[in-house]
Write a structure and sequence with these properties.
This protein is mainly alpha-helical. It is built from 16 helices and 2 strands. The chain has one domain. It comes from Mycobacterium rhizamassiliense.
């Protein structure tokens, strides 16, 4: 089952959690106080560079009918769409640049190059997802209504095709994100006010219609005016560029939410939740992946998903420096800092999705001590005296040590059982 008590799960006292919250607040304040021209120059240059890249891609598509030119233009356009989606659109709409008071780079005015409406996304993502991160029954991003990603979700025959649904979601990710706010399930089951349903549907079709017109009618028609291109080649290029963007965005987001160690929570965790407990839930429910400057930029700096969830409205170009201090906080309170290479984290998400296509009875781990589904019950054998300071080392014993201890016991039990089986054989 999911975590029902963050305090018990992390082995931290109320005083520890309050202190942790104060330290994380201090990091926020330091970044807010130091925002300035360097940051403003970064986002303006990023927007200018992205637009130049998009123009270059479209010119390449118009310049020649050769396959090499088509691929060059398509990939260039796909990269431009990734940057617009990840490092610009996502972050601008989080309000990361609102402090500049620039009406062109403001969360309330930016409309991104996606099928879904920015207005809808700001509610489903900025408000719902970031407030109720990984809380079952509250955060629709836990599986996106299509995938079983934790054993807390009841298995059905539909989940046998988990891998198929994830593939389709990746290819058409912009449409999945766009339809999320429409909540088709509630409309079909008549669990939504008719006026609200009509407004959401009309707003979605209006934005999606404009996007289809731009990507699959206007730009292909404009490109086909060149003797070196055809309407069909331009149409295919735009569709392929969108798929490139969709698959990459899906991969980055899944690496931040579904690898081992990204915990899920129950609604009880929200009752009387303090600022420190909210911080803890964000840290425990998110995961990072490691990479250099290029990978950080192309992921919209969401390789620092932990830091983004702690400070969703701080400039993305500052998350790398913030991560150093957040990691120090995790070490101080003996909390795990979930990270790994991009390929490892992405592989773990696919492994989880594959495993959970099967009912729990066919899975080896129990629902309280599995890589993707854990709860405080996994520490039942530790006893209340475990929390506090390790008398041997003098270091604080928290969640990180608790997990390592329980895993050590499990490995020793498995090794002992294996030896008994070998002797019996």
């Amino acid at each position: 089952m999911a975590v029902t008590d963050v305090d018990v799960f992390t082995h931290l006292t109320d005083a520890d959690i309050e202190s942790l919250g104060i330290e994380l607040d201090a990091i926020r304040q330091d970044i807010e106080d130091s925002r300035g021209e360097r940051d403003a120059r970064y986002i303006r240059r990023t927007i200018a560079g992205q637009r130049a890249l998009e123009v270059a891609g479209r010119l390449l598509l118009a310049a020649s009918s050769r396959r090499s030119a088509w691929w060059a233009g398509t990939v260039t356009l796909g990269v431009a769409k990734i940057i617009e989606n990840m490092e610009i659109g996502h972050n601008v709409m989080h309000g990361q640049w609102d402090w500049m008071n620039d009406p062109e780079i403001h969360s309330s005015t930016w409309e991104w190059d996606m099928a879904g409406s920015s207005k809808h996304w700001r509610y489903t993502h900025n408000f719902v997802h970031h407030k109720y991160t990984n809380i079952l029954g509250m955060d629709d991003d836990v599986g996106y209504g299509m995938l079983r990603v934790t054993r807390d979700q009841r298995w059905s025959k539909y989940n046998l095709l988990n891998l198929v649904w994830n593939t389709l979601l990746g290819i058409g990710f912009e449409w999945g994100v766009g339809l999320q706010h429409v909540e088709i399930g509630k409309i079909v089951k008549k669990r939504m006010d008719q006026d609200d349903a009509r407004q959401r549907t009309e707003e979605f079709f209006a934005k999606a219609g404009r996007q289809i017109l731009k990507d699959y009618v206007a730009f292909p028609a404009l490109t086909s005016l060149s003797p070196g291109a055809t309407y069909r080649s331009a149409l295919t290029a735009n569709a392929t560029a969108n798929v490139i963007r969709n698959i990459w965005a899906n991969a980055v987001i899944f690496c931040g939410h579904f690898p081992d160690g990204a915990e899920k929570f129950t609604k009880t965790d929200m009752i009387g939740e303090t600022k420190g407990q909210w911080y803890l839930r964000q840290m425990l429910g998110s995961a990072n992946f490691e990479g250099g400057p290029t990978l950080r930029f192309m992921s919209g700096n969401l390789c620092h998903q932990i830091e983004h969830h702690l400070y969703p409205d701080l400039p993305s170009n500052r998350l790398h420096e913030i991560s150093v201090r957040v990691r120090e906080v995790c070490d101080k309170y003996d909390l795990p800092y979930t990270t790994g290479s991009f390929l490892m984290q992405y592989g773990k998400t696919w492994r989880t999705i594959a495993k959970l296509s099967l009912p729990n009875k066919y899975l080896r781990d129990d629902a309280d001590n599995a890589p993707e589904t854990r709860s405080e019950r996994m520490f039942a054998e530790l006893g209340p005296e475990f929390a506090g300071t390790d008398p041997a080392t003098g270091h604080r014993r928290g969640l990180k040590t608790a997990i390592a201890t329980v895993r050590g016991w499990r490995r020793r039990k498995q090794a002992a059982a294996q030896r008994r089986d070998d002797l019996a054989a």
